[in-house]
Amino acid sequence: MTSLDPPRDVPILVTSSATSSERRINPSWTITQLKTKLEPITGISSSAQILTLRLPGSQQGTAIASKDEDVTQVASWSLTKHAELHVTSSDPSSGSVIPPLSSVPKYEMPVETYSSLPDTVLAYKRTHQIGRFDPNAPEIAEKKVADLWKEVEAGGMIVGARCILPPSTTRRGTVAYIGLVPEIPGIGPWIGVKLDEPAGKNDGTVSGKRYFDCEPHYGLFVRPERVEVGDWKELGLDEDDDDLDEI
Q1: Beta-sheet pairing, 83-89 with 10-15
Q2: Alpha carbons 94 and 90: distance in angstroms, whole number
Q3: pLDDT tens for residues 13-28?
Q4: How far apart are CA 85 and CA 8, in angstroms?
């Protein structure tokens, strides 16, 4: 870039008490121009803005201010890509006119209203007899449950059996539970596995109901097709395995 080339925009993270977004700032802007552009983004009046620049990796902030903000350019400060420009208000009574999203009331349509609308996914499924609206849905569900139990039996899955969770051969454990888990969406049996390593999602409980005992992060519930029972010994730290680089 020659001295005749205009300065390039710099991507900066603009934050305030209510907003956070990446914006492109031109170093040739004056502080006044910058504050004017920040007002609709942060909701803080340009006359009340206090600007603090934090460079990447630094917790220390540098104030962007000048006695003559109509003339002083933003280029007077080291604008680095992905630095943070934090905007606060000098008027504590006003702050940002943009309220936090968590405080904004959200509309929730009643189930009865949604069910009565004609142009929805639910209406389409009802019209075309898809899913639970299929007259054969009960028979289909029964067959699915029966197939899952057959898979449990064919796979030799019993409580206490050693297993792996394919495709990995290093994710090993012991079958600790076989049966229904009403707290998890879906029909048919689930396999509760007590893993050898803390790579699970629970301690054998689901929504407060205990199905088997294990330490936190050692428990996992999976479908029968994800379990392979066999003589899978617990891996030692010095054992060589082709899949160890996947851990």
Answers
A1: parallel
A2: 9
A3: 999 887 888 899 999 9
A4: 17
* Sole residue written with tokens 């220390």: 60
- As given in the structure block, the two tokens for residue 161 are 């059996």
> Which residue intervals of the chain are DSSP H helices?
31-42, 111-116, 121-127, 137-154
Listed in sequence order, the residues at least 6 apart from 235 whose beta carbon sits closer than 8 Å to its beta carbon are 170, 172, 196, 241
Closest C-alpha among 247, 97, 245 to residue 165:
247
Please, what sign has the CA dihedral across residues 51, 57, 60, 64? Answer: negative
3 state SS of 223 = coil
First to last CA, the chain: 47
Angle at 194 between CA 188 and CA 198, to 5 degrees: 125
Angle made by CA atoms 108, 131, 152, in degrees to the nearest 5: 115
CA nearest to 157, candidates 225, 238, 110: 225
- The pLDDT value recorded for residue 131 is 83
Question: Rounded to two decimals, what is the model's pTM?
Answer: 0.49
Number of Cβ within 10 Å of residue 31's Cβ equals 22
Structure tokens at 149: 């139990």
Distance of CA 123 to the CA centre of its chain: 30
Place of tokens 């449950």: 145
Q: Using CA atoms, how far apart are residues 159 and 208, in angstroms rounded to an integer?
A: 21
Peptide bond into 167 cis (omega under 30): yes
Q: Which residues contact 135 (CB under 8 A, 6 or more apart)?
A: 129
Gap between the Cα atoms of 160 and 173, Å rounded: 10
